[in-house]
DNA sequence: CATGAATGAGCGTTCATTCAT
DNA sequence: GATGAATGAACGCTCATTCAT
């Protein structure tokens, strides 16, 4: 229904959905999400046409948040390795300080409710990061590989690193660096 | 001793579940799985106590199948790099020729129906591979990292590689090799 | 405040449950009760959390209705025998004009779905009658017996009397009186 | 199927049914009864065509056992009151020493699975007791009442008495006597 | 006959979505 | 728009009964 009234309510629902997805999974009833958001059952459907719609929007929102957090403070003039390292560190920091968002995003990522269109839009939010990657691998061993492959590898390494930073917070910095080193070794 | 429980039927159900999970996700009705397996609705519960039980057993079966496929033909005497490469190639081949199994396994892997115990048992089937990894990274940059981190990285690279081999079958071999190279570079 | 929960609907369900229990027993599907009440399948669960909850509430409602019918028009100043006779007659009249309620109540009474708490609450609705009994037996042969025993005997006699009044309506009054006489003889 | 082979097995099933009905109610699965009896699932249906058939036969068996226990040692020549008292005492003793049988019988008695024919046959086993009753009430206040009414009253008093003997075993004898006195006062 | 796997109708309950207020 | 009751399809699981062994 075009523009729903309260932006507050919309984001309350998205926040609640994040929380609830983490604790109950994607099969959590919309009623629970609504209650957690402090709105009525049916109001959820004023803001999101269907449950799947809610999930798609949430996916995008989380992905975009993650991307913008990663890019924060980036200086385009700096050396490439420095820039990539900066992004990587931001990214890991985001994951560590937003564990719920990350977990929800992971769950949503594997759901078949998320449409290809949404996934594509999600990728777009990470274009800037992709560019850094592209330049980083330009002369490395992956120079011939499809870009998607390189991105996938980076994502995979990132996931593994995040898991260990969360799991073993005492050594978070060490894991962060180890993850970056592995990435850099793969790329260059 | 009456009609014995039929191993055929059990595996028909597991196979059906694999197929159905790929097309309908984990929320697929047990009735659909049963029909696909050619057994009655209720018979599924003769072989698996609950839907979750079915999923857990399927997870293990798939994981074990994947592991044993990866280890096939391995010569313990060979050079380390050769052995790892052999396993890697087997693994990728399994993924390419069993895309349904792989996708089902991925879905099951993120489900919260799969118990920690099942996951632990799943890990055990991959011990031999873990040992190779351990030896491979022994003098490499990850020598100080927790083993779980190394495993996670390998899994991540494997996932990314599989995706691209399936997505772009014409260059499957190239992707396979690129994946392995990336792994080896990270480890050594 | 949206559509409010309708007391009408709630009692339609209770009435339907009474009817259906009489014809189909306690194993009657909730779906049948709902249909009989003219509401949707799922609406029953808006008013009663579970089938057992419905049964417990119905039990209480019937018991309370029976008690209050029995006490109607009672004059506390009257002679004891008159009062007991009055209650007895009311009680029998209730049974005769509400055969379905009585049969449902009987069925519910023997069900193990009815919780001790519900039974206790049911007893409370009959306190006034118990008091009359207490005073009636005070100097009679049962003066030493536990009160519960006396109550049980009264209930038993009442049940037997009701059965015969329903079974042989032509002589209902005679049976009613015979039942009362038996009771009075036991008590005094 | 005509005459099943093992009488042992048949009665094992009946005994198991009694036990199981007490603990799980009439909705207990036949499979549970079979397991408790130590026979296979399907064998139960060799001995009893349906679950309802099993229940009907069990009802009769229990009722007959109760009746014959009540009549044991009865001396037809003795004084009427003595005879009735003797039967009553036997009856109560049976109830106290066979609480499971009694409870199962109670449950079966209110079930609508028990056919009128079965109930009629059950009554027949108690004819001798009925005769005693008939003679006892011949000159009493219930002389004009239908015999069924008298029987019902006796049953009711018996039930109430049994309940209290079981509930308060220390005073079982006292309750037994009180019950009999009440009965005798009603009859004569 | 004994066994226990096979069958499939049936049930209580849930929940996304709609709609009366 | 907000609310929450109403709806009914859908699901996991049970269980009396049948039947292959």
Automatic annotation (TrEMBL), chains A, B, C, D:
Keywords: DNA-binding
Domain of life of the native organism: Bacteria
InterPro entries (alphabetical): Homeodomain-like_sf, HTH-type_TetR-like_transc_reg, HTH_TetR
Pfam families reported in the protein's UniProt record: TetR_N
Residues annotated as domain HTH tetR-type: 7-66
Gene Ontology molecular function: DNA binding
SUPFAM superfamilies named among the record's database cross-references: Homeodomain-like (SSF46689)
DNA-binding region in chain numbering: 29-48
Name of the protein in its database record: AcrR family transcriptional regulator
Biological classification of the source: Bacteria, Pseudomonadati, Acidobacteriota, Terriglobia, Terriglobales
